[in-house]
Amino acid sequence: MQRYIKEENTPAFEVIARLCIAAGARMVQLAAEALGERTLPPEKHAELVSLIYEGLMDGLPEARILRFARLAAP
């Protein structure tokens, strides 16, 4: 963790996602729920999580964000 904080190393997206879930980051959980069994390339997955985060920060209801995320993810 210290190496990540000091920017000496960059964690893989999967590591970041697991850390977020363990810390209770709702945006990653919503993305996983929206995708179900589907997968996205890492950059698209990160974009989806980012959009979900923005929606949460804007105060949108989780149900609306989840509907949007399901439509946005192929």
Report the mean per-residue pLDDT as an integer: 82
Fraction of residues in β-strands: under 5%
What's the count of strands?
0
* Count of domain modules: 1
Radius of gyration: 13 Å
Largest sheet: none
Instruction: Count the DSSP helices.
Output: 5
Low-confidence stretches: none
**Outline, from the CA principal axes?**
globular
Overall helicity: 55-70%
Look at the helices and sheets and give the structural class. Answer: mainly alpha
Would you mind describing this structure in some detail?
The chain is an all-alpha fold. Helices cover 69% and strands 0% of the residues. The chain has helices at 2-5, 13-22, 26-35, 42-57, 62-72. The protein is globular, with a radius of gyration of 13 Å. The model has no long low-confidence stretch (mean pLDDT 82).
Descriptors for this entry?
74 residues; single chain; globular; mainly alpha
Brief summary:
The chain is mostly helical and 74 residues long. The protein has helices at residues 2-5, 13-22, 26-35, 42-57, 62-72.
Task: Map the helices and strands.
Layout lengths: L1 H4 L7 H10 L3 H10 L6 H16 L4 H11 L2
Helix pairs in contact: 3-4, 3-5, 4-5
